Amino acid sequence: MPILFEEVKYVYDPRTPFEKEALNNINLKISEGEFVTILGKTGSGKSTLLQLMNGILKPSSGTVSVDKILTSRNDDSIFNIRRRVGLVFQYPEHQFFEENVFKEIAFGPKNFGVEANELNRVVLEAVEMVGLPRTVLSKSPFNLSGGEKRKVAIASVISCNPKYLVFDEPTSGLDPVSVNLFFDMVKRFRKFGKTIIIVTHSVKEAIQNSERIIVMTKGQIVFDGDIQTFIKSKKLIEWGMLPPPLYRLAWKIKEKVDDFDIKDDRLSEAVSLLKSMIN
Ligand SMILES: Nc1ncnc2c1ncn2[C@@H]1O[C@H](COP(=O)(O)OP(=O)(O)O)[C@@H](O)[C@H]1O
Ligand SMILES: [Mg+2]
To answer: Mean pLDDT in the chain?
Structure first.
């Protein structure tokens, strides 16, 4: 069962002077168990795409469905979609509204029918999964550090046990150690069979962690494929992104090699050699 976009267009403020087409001609299928990274510069439509995945936004035309349930239906199936697709916002504060962390994390599962005597366990599991100490449970989510807020935001989504986990720029503003901790956590989620969709600015993160890369420019998908194809396409600059130094170096070396018929597995060998030299 997938998340499926068919011929999707999204327009903000239609039929007003502020009308803005954010997505156009989106066809996309994300199957269960995939780990997908979405890249693209600011304004390319990434956040809009994510919000269409769990029905916060409905397509202006075309259809979005989650496990065959259309997000545009006007009945309580939207409840079912929200439960399947957990979206962690770019700014955690935008999703907080409770007075303490316990209530914040308990809100989703409570709404989805988890019994009161089970709630405690569900909240504690979520807190442990994201690596927060239990002492935060009584604090206001608004008074935590940036990193803690992000963890609470993730815990409050994880506690609903969604199949699809969608993160909007989860690593922006994090130091390298916290970025690594975040991806360790994602690996744990994958062990539980979650489908992962991450939006990031970082080409390096995309290459190092995911399996499939989608690139957006101006509301359209301009690349959708695996890491090797992505690296070889060498269109990053055209797409408005800076390739990581390691890859610029690998490309330069490849250009200089006399044997123009260099085999791809030799390129990947060179890349892993460079990686081991840098690490
Ligand atoms: N709430 C909104 N109202 C009007 N226009 C918006 C709104 N949110 C985003 N946009 C516009 O839609 C386009 C895509 O934005 P967005 O999906 O946020 O891109 P990204 O996440 O890649 O930066 C941009 O031109 C942006 O200005
Ligand atoms: Mg965004």
So the answer is: 90
